């Protein structure tokens, strides 16, 4: 970490004893500051986080879980009715759509794009509106 913070460029190096002592001072200062900050701030911060996790646990155990259970019991009949309606009305429709769209196959081709239906052999060209026949 010391070399990342106080790196000397190529060609400009200090005396080895200065570099070694700078390294020792840097590490000593860092360690002392860390210990002082943890001594002053560590206990209040730990108390804050402990209280926060206690609050989250309390609300989960005593508020959220009973409310979810109450909703589960209360809405069970609505769930059954919706299940019956959806399976009897939309089930057959979705099954039919599934059968229709299951026959679609997509392939990737590298040739020329297909020609329009009107330009295929045996089809008369469409030059305009066809007359209505009685």
The shape is: flat
Quaternary form: single chain
| Strand-residue proportion | under 5%
Number of helices: 3
**Elements, N to C (H/E):** HHH
Structural class comes to: mainly alpha
Major sheet size, sense and barrel closure: none
Q: How far is the first residue's CA from the last residue's CA?
A: 95 Å
Taking all Cα atoms into account, the compactness measure Rg is 39 Å
- Global mean pLDDT: 83
Helix content percent band: 55-70%
List unreliable stretches of 5+ residues.
none
Number of strands: 0
Structure description:
The protein has 134 residues and is mainly α. Helices cover 66% and strands 0% of the residues.
In short:
The protein is mainly α and 134 residues long. It contains three helices and no strands.
Please write out the topology:
Elements: H1 2-5, H2 16-74, H3 76-101
């Amino acid at each position: 970490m010391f070399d990342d913070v106080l790196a000397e460029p190529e060609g400009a190096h200090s005396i080895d004893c200065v570099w070694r002592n700078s390294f020792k001072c840097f590490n000593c200062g860092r360690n002392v500051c860390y210990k002082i900050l943890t001594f002053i701030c560590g206990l209040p911060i730990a108390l804050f986080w402990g209280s926060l996790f206690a609050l989250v646990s309390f609300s989960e155990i005593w508020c959220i879980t009973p409310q979810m259970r109450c909703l589960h019991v209360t809405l069970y009949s609505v769930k059954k009715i919706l299940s019956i309606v959806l399976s009897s009305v939309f089930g057959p429709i979705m099954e039919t759509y599934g059968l229709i769209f299951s026959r679609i196959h997509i392939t990737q081709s590298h040739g020329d794009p297909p020609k329009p239906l009107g330009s295929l052999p045996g089809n008369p060209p469409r030059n305009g509106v066809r007359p209505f026949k009685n």
